[in-house]
Write a structure and sequence with these properties.
Elements lengths: L36 H14 L6 E2 L5 H11 L4 H5 L11 H22 L1 E5 L5 E6 L8 H7 L4 H4 L2 H23 L7 E8 L8 H16 L3 E5 L4 H7 L2 E9 L6 E8 L3 H27 L3
Parallel strand pairs: 4-5
Antiparallel strand pairs: 1-2, 2-3, 3-4, 5-7, 6-7
Helix pairs in contact: 2-4, 4-5, 8-10
Length: 297
């Protein structure tokens, strides 16, 4: 998360449903650069992701509503996503009212990530959606908070919901990430959301969206960070190179909500293999092109 709690309105991250294992997971944010360098940095990340032909694509701003709907479905029963909505002072709310707020929160978060982070999707009809925050970036600037609609949370959450979100959740995540990552706090990839719709589970879509960025992180020699609120997910993430660093708890509800903090260190050997493969592919193309050029008419 980031340093200003007022700006931190955007840290509404959390645990989702993986596709292969039909589970749920979480993730968070970084720091702001509103200078002219920021859009170029985002474009560079987007270009790197868009290069491969694996069905993964970068979300565009007009897609924020269907992408948010997909995440809302994936997170519909997530303890962290509901932690700010299922409060004692909202017991009189109907299920439809709670769903409407749940969906609105995710629309704000998706919009902000499209503006300042890296929002990816793969599969039919937004089957799986991932929201990443690249190194050195966040969405805590006032313009992004206003444009995304995150400012509305100050009015839409109940009194207890605001205490849980602004006074417990955000400070806990900010302090935990800073303590876990140390000097790399602002120099790592942050997986904020990863969710798969029920109809798209079992197709390996979540793995694609994670690998897309972990391959990039390996090439950059950067770590990846996340929080998972589903007990089933750490074992899945471990297969993708993440390890549990610590566990923290949200404690204002009737039962504690546990969050496993996980970090993936860069795999330089894998990055070297990819570089060598790319180099070999380029050499083969050069040879083929040279042979075609020498071929008599």
């Amino acid at each position: 998360m980031e340093k200003a709690v007022a700006a931190s309105t955007l840290n509404l991250i959390h645990t989702n449903h993986l596709d292969d294992e039909k589970s749920t997971m979480t993730d968070s944010i970084s720091t702001v650069d509103t200078s002219s360098r920021a859009p170029r940095a985002a474009n560079n990340q987007n270009d790197a992701v868009a290069a491969a032909d694996d069905g993964v694509r970068v979300l565009q701003i007009h897609e924020y509503k269907p992408a948010a709907l997909a995440l809302a479905e994936a997170f519909a029963e997530d303890d962290v996503a509901m932690y700010f909505i299922n409060t004692p002072d909202r017991q009189h709310w109907t299920a439809a009212q709670k769903w409407e707020l749940h969906l609105a929160i995710l629309e704000y978060v998706v919009y902000a990530h499209i503006l300042k982070g890296l929002a990816l999707t793969v599969g039919e009809d937004y089957g799986c959606v991932a929201l990443w925050m690249p190194p050195g970036r966040n969405m805590d600037d006032q313009l992004t908070v206003i444009r995304s609609g995150m400012w509305r949370l100050h009015f839409q959450l109940s009194k207890e919901g605001k205490k849980r979100f602004f006074e417990e959740f955000l400070p806990l995540l900010h302090d935990t990430k800073a303590r876990t990552m140390g000097a790399r706090d602002d120099d790592s990839w942050y997986l904020v959301y990863l969710g798969t719709k029920k109809a798209s589970q079992g197709q390996g879509l979540a793995k694609k969206l994670v690998k897309k960025v972990t391959d990039l992180a390996d090439a950059q020699n950067k770590a990846c960070y996340l929080e998972s609120s589903n007990a089933k997910n750490p074992a899945i993430y471990q297969r993708w190179g993440f390890e549990v660093a610590r566990r923290v708890h949200l404690q204002r509800g009737p039962n504690n909500v546990d969050l496993d903090i996980m970090v993936r260190e860069p795999n330089q050997s894998a990055a070297r293999v990819e570089r060598e493969k790319a180099k070999t592919d380029e050499e083969i193309r050069d040879i083929v092109e040279a042979n075609l050029a020498c071929r008599p008419c």
